[in-house]
Amino acid sequence: MKFYIASSFKNIDSVMYVSERLKKEGFVHAYDWTQNNKATSIEELKEIGQNEKRAVMEADFVIVLFPAGKSSHVELGIALGQGKNVFLYSPDEKINDLETTSTFYHLPGVNKCYGTIEEFIEKISAVQLV
């Protein structure tokens, strides 16, 4: 099964860790944006956006690691529009804070996860390998 991870450059270490752990379990990373340098032109942004969109469309499920960047929410929308399983991860329950949450975090097919990153990875494996 293919996965895609949406997040921000602030979370690059966590993104790489989750990716490596899932690949060890036999999952395939659809596109690893952590290998990109920061874009310095509109053309680079366009190419990265096309790669990310294609990866979300190809993925069987999408992960959003918080704190997430603005593009992560676009990727979340694409995944929801395609009917894909989505896993939201936050080490705490801030994604349920009525002041900052999104209505889209609470739709069917969205799995909200809190706690350690290890517990999160276990939950993904349990749900996706069923």
Explained architecture:
This protein has 130 residues and is α/β, with parallel strands linked by helices. Helix content is 42%, strand content 18%. The protein contains 4 helices and 5 strands, in the order E-H-E-H-E-H-E-E-H. The chain has helices at residues 12-24, 42-58, 70-81, 117-128, and strands spanning 2-6, 28-29, 61-65, 85-90, 110-114. Strands 2-1-3-4-5 form a 5-stranded parallel sheet, sandwiched between helices. The radius of gyration is 14 Å and the shape is globular. The termini are close together. 28% of the residues are buried. The mean pLDDT is 92.
Average per-residue pLDDT, rounded, comes to 92
Write down the Rg.
14 Å
Question: For the terminal residues, how far apart are their CA atoms?
Answer: 12 Å
Helix content: 40-55%
Strands, count: 5
Largest sheet: 5 strands, parallel
Low-confidence stretches: none
H/E topology pattern: EHEHEHEEH
> How are the strands of the biggest sheet laid out side by side?
2-1-3-4-5
Structural class: alpha/beta
**Number of DSSP helices?**
4
What distinguishing features does this structure have?
42% helix; 4 helices; alpha/beta; 130 residues
Provide a compact summary of the structure.
The chain is α/β, with parallel strands linked by helices.
